[in-house]
Design brief:
The chain is of the alpha/beta class. Helices cover 38% and strands 16% of the residues. The longest helix is centred in the middle third of the chain and has 24 residues.
Amino acid sequence: MEKSQIQSLAEVAELKIESGRKFFSATPEEIISGATSDIYFVRTHEILRQLNLVDTPVTAEVFCRRDGIFAGIKEVLDLLADKDVELWALPEGSAMQAKEVVLRITGPYGEFGIFETPLLGFLASSSGWATAAREVKEAAGGKPVLCFGARHIHPAVAPAMERAAIIGGCDGASCILGAKLAGREPQGTIPHAMILIIGDTVKAAQSYNELMPADAARTVLVDTFKDEAEEALRVAEALGRDLAGVRLDTPGERGGVTPELVKEIRARLDQKGFDHVKIFVSGGLNPERIRILSEAGADAFGVGSYISGASPIDMTLDLKEINGQPLTKRGRIPGKTPNQRLVKMK
């Protein structure tokens, strides 16, 4: 059941945390109610309401603090779906420049003022993730990049992160819900755990090949038990043309995945007639490492913490017009900021 919007300090005081609550993450109903907003917006709403000023017509603008890829507007639109406001924004996935106005809202202040906190949060986090995804995709030079970042952050926001990564340019994501939210099917084959339990990389690869549906990618980890080049050849000989790729995820304790390792495996596979087998690399990747490994012969990349750990792109909301007249705080220029790239969305 959808909760009514918080409008007073009394309602804040009445807000109780139910005993037995499973998780600390906010529900959609709590976000829509204003429970994730900063308290000072509730104070503002209550004061303006008692002064009969809460419905003052205003124009608000949001600008970004640094260059990046704009994302998160879908959730902002859903947050304000039933509010009497008009909204203009950059299309999701657009490149944005520092200090550019990315969102403009017009309407009674009371319709949206209390939601400044979650509104900015949607945009800041999603844009940060999308920007990091674009950076690694560009570093890959057109080669496939999958987002493997869900394990690094709170599960409540992992789907939002992986959706944003796809908006930013990733070709897919491993998180089931994240991929589905972006209109894709989740991607990923097997973890080290399966190989360890079965006890042999080749047996694990054969089991996967026999038991998984035909449309499941045949990409196999080859760094669990033995030398990666040796395992790559063993798996290739066992699966033949069925094998699409080998995945290198060598831990840092063993030196990680190096350009030399990629070159060796590529050469050994080619010498044995397995030139169709691609080399998929994961583990601590960033744009610089992706460029180096790509030049060495890596064909695809799985990126986790570089995307999931990306800093949010700070977003700032300013009121720029009050009652139709240009007015704002010191340091800002009053009135609407021209930006022909904004598209009317509501």
